[in-house]
Amino acid sequence: RVADVVVGAASACAFAAAADPSAATELVVALKTFLTSPTAPPAAKALSLEAIASMCDGDALEFYAAFKVVATRGAMPSLPSDPIVASRWTALLGRGATDAAAFPAAAASCADAAFGALTAGLDQPGPGDDDDDGENKEKRARAWVATRTAAYAALGAYDPVVVVEGVFDDDDDDDEKEKEKETDGRRRRRRVSSAAIAEAMLDEPTPFGDVVDA
């Protein structure tokens, strides 16, 4: 029953954020609690991420500040292991496109994370994957369809330059970044190649198929 109450409260927060993003900022403390609690059900965490996305869409929250809280205090610096939470986490990444020019390095990192989610559920071995019928593989792949679809949508929100070329830094005095120099003579944090994106789209164009939520 406690889990049901927590999910209900998180659902109310998500509904409030969708209805009035600015007013819902008063619920940020509650959302932090849902995200950081180790006992909070995955559904509550997913709904909290939905609420944050709604507030970012309504300009009530600054995405990169909000995502920093999600990544650190919410302990979600990378793709969550639960497919329901992961789908909302991945969808949230697309909100970084709006302020990508102001936060280029952070934007490139978010695009990287979204690209990594394109194969969620497809590249992770699971128990029973050696079975001849491949039933476990199929179930796992279907459970992560929403995450993969969200990843395509998130990438589509960013300027292609951010996704394909990454972030360039022309500071010649930074010895630490010297290690990142590439053959074109510019320092660059390698991001996603256009060929890799094309291959992913050809392998599984999920935005054009059925979306099966986890």
Automatic annotation (TrEMBL):
Residues 121-140, 167-214 are annotated as: Disordered. It comes from Micromonas pusilla. InterPro entries: FOCAD/RST1_DUF3730, Focadhesin/RST1. It comes from the Eukaryota. Residues 8-106 form the DUF3730 domain. One of its GO terms (biological process) is regulation of post-transcriptional gene silencing. This is DUF3730 domain-containing protein. Residues 167-177 have a biased composition (Acidic residues). Pfam families: DUF3730.
